[in-house]
Amino acid sequence: MRFEESLISQLLREEIMQESVTYQAIIRKGRQQGKQEEARSLVMRMLTRQFGNLDEQLQQRIGALSVTQLEELALALLDFHSAADLIVWLDEN
Questions:
Q1: 3-state secondary structure the chain
Q2: Are 43 and 77 in contact (CB under 8 A)?
Q3: How far apart are CA 72 and CA 93, in angstroms?
Q4: Are 51 and 45 in contact (CB under 8 A)?
Q5: CB 39 within 8 A of CB 70
């Protein structure tokens, strides 16, 4: 099988780029941001279902949480009885 030299060069550049430290760091950061956005979206849907629409200030506070905090909040909200419980949790965490 014969490939054009430009195609081979392009494939090799892509492979080298994918192995670079900078490329890997960009990919990791993108994955982390995606994970955080998905966790935030899931928690917001759960809270909205349980308490209705949250005010902008609460949404901003939740938006500032790390993935770990969002995961902890997702578990904690199963025991919440009101939006006041959410506020207490946010104040404590």
A1: CCCCHHHHHHHHHHHHHHHCHHHHHHHHHHHHHHHHHHHHHHHHHHHHHHHCCCCHHHHHHHHCCCHHHHHHHHHHHHHCCCHHHHHHHHHHC
A2: yes
A3: 10
A4: no
A5: yes
Closest by Cα among 51, 56, 53, 41 to 86? 51
Spell out the per-residue pLDDT of the chain, length 93, in tens.
566 667 656 655 666 666 667 767 777 888 888 888 999 999 999 999 999 999 999 999 999 999 999 999 999 999 999 999 999 999 999
The structure tokens listed for 2 are 């014969």
